[in-house]
Amino acid sequence: MTGIRDIGALSSWHSDWSGIRVLVLGLGVTGFAVADTLAELGCSVMVAAGSADTATEEILEVLGVQFVRADIDQGVPDVVESFDPELVIVSPGLRPQHPAVVWAYGGDRTVWGDIELAWRLRDKTGVPAEWIVVTGTNGKTTTVQLTAAMLVAGGVRAAPCGNVGVPVLDAIRDPEGFDALVVELSSFQLHYLGDIAPWASACLNVADDHLDWHGSASAYREAKGKVYRNTKIAAVFNEDDSLTRKLLEEAEVVEGCRAIGFGLGIPQPSSFGIVDGIACDRAFLDDRHHAAMEITTVDELAAVGLGGRHMLANVLAAAALARSFGISIEAVRSALLAFHPDKHRSQLVAERDGIRWVDDSKATNTHAALASLTSFDSVVWIVGGLFKGTSPGELIDSVSGRVKGAVVIGTDRDAVRAAFARHAPQLPVFEVDTLDTKEVMPKAVRLAAAIASEGDVVLLAPAAASMDQFRDYADRGDQFAAALHDLLGGEADDDEPSAPPTEP
């Protein structure tokens, strides 16, 4: 029989969590952090998931967490029903229509996501850190990392966390504590967000993505808009993306919260922008109606890999968030010029005979691929994968003038070929149709090399998810680099393979 405790009243690490029956649905990086946290709090914890490696199962057993291996895509098994959880924590990868999620909401149970749980527990080490939250279809991770670097350069104890790789629950349990957490939030996490009150928030951009998960474009946009809710100090929006402004206008923020814009044009008062090749702050200075503060130049940013249009937008958004926290212009500039973008984000892998080979495997949707493609003038484009309910047609139409030829990979090749035939019939399009996943990239780079000539960029910007033929986007990028290494005889980047990302 379900307990009568008021789960909603549990709002602190120091509340009495002992003995509460909690079910964790899913066991990725986030699900494990949830189970570990709840076990530390003294809860009675069960995890239900389709699989777990042996080491993880052994750790769960040591923690006193019951692991139920079950195909939860078919609903929950009898052992979960018998456990009769009072609280269910849903891992962010599980869509709202998932049978186990529908079951969780269908009974007399409280259902949270990991972010709401972390918010309630954020006072473990004393005074809670302020949260700066970031979402967007693209650019989230870079912006989060940039913002955290700026805060640290300004003397703030800060860390990037959330969908960027370190679960928020791990960050709030750090024994040293933080002054600020910069939290990347995916649309999945935002769907299950609950009530938080961040210091500052940003939605970088919105373009259709994950429609198969959310069910519709409107549901996806609604999830993204939750990032602004209850923001206390600064809500940052993209002046070049009217939808972000609309989402902010519709949001309920704390009275006195400022709307801060960023864009690649000349900044208006209370915004960040570009003037004559100089990135400027016209928001956090006394005379913002008549003056602006220079952050750094576009040329300096280009020298550290932050010169593309999409990277410049990320820089401006991060600067706005950091400046809202009182970080000096000097610290912002110092962090920018010391920053190194992650692998697989517009990464130059090799250059030979005047041809540049660029890995932007992180471009897992059409919006990200558009930003990448528009950074170059003549592109041989490696494109394809899983399109998650979206179509590449509009993207192909908009970039056809700068694409010299295309190499199509992935299981959704038919749709890509049809889109090229409809929107850019003049372009040469080649297809990698092998069923051997280890041969996809070797064939793709050979085909691309046959098309490319001096002055071209061979760009891996797939505009699609990777799990049809690769472990994840990092694996896709690593295989691209390895194939290129073999083709060019050792002149490609020899870095070690990247660690896999956490959530989609």
User: What class, by secondary structure content?
Assistant: alpha/beta
Low-confidence stretches: 493-504
Q: Reading side by side through the largest sheet, how are the strands ordered?
A: 7-8-6-9-10-11-12-13-14
Tell me the name of the CATH class of the largest domain. Alpha Beta
CATH fold category name of the largest domain: UDP-N-acetylmuramoyl-L-alanine:D-glutamate ligase
Q: Please state the CA-atom Rg, rounded to the nearest Å.
A: 23 Å
Helix proportion range: 25-40%
Sheet having the most strands = 9 strands, mixed
**Mean of residue pLDDT?**
90
Count of discrete alpha- or pi-helical segments spanning 4 or more residues: 19
Number of strands: 20
Distance between the termini: 36 Å
CATH architecture of the largest domain: 3-Layer(aba) Sandwich
The CATH superfamily of the largest domain turns out to be: Mur-like, catalytic domain
Question: How many structural units, i.e. domains?
Answer: 3
Question: Mind explaining what this structure looks like?
Answer:
With 504 residues, the protein is an alpha/beta fold. The protein folds into three domains: 18-116, NAD(P)-binding Rossmann-like Domain (Rossmann fold); 122-337, 3-Layer(aba) Sandwich (UDP-N-acetylmuramoyl-L-alanine:D-glutamate ligase); 347-488, Protein-Tyrosine Phosphatase, Chain A, CATH 3.90.190.20. Helices cover 34% and strands 19% of the residues. The protein has 19 helices and 20 strands. The chain has helices at 29-40, 54-63, 78-83, 99-105, 114-120, 140-153, 168-172, 187-191, 211-214, 217-225, 242-250, 298-303, 309-324, 329-337, 366-373, 393-399, 413-423, 440-451, 473-488, and strands at residues 21-25, 44-49, 66-69, 87-90, 110-113, 130-135, 158-162, 180-184, 200-203, 234-238, 258-262, 271-275, 278-281, 293-297, 347-352, 355-359, 379-383, 403-408, 429-431, 457-460. A nine-stranded mixed beta sheet has the order 7-8-6-9-10-11-12-13-14, with helices on both faces. A six-stranded mixed beta sheet has the order 15-16-20-17-18-19, sandwiched between helices. Strand 12 and strand 13 form a beta hairpin. Helix 6 (140-153) crosses helix 14 (329-337) and helix 10 (217-225) crosses helix 11 (242-250). The model is unreliable at 493-504 (pLDDT under 50).
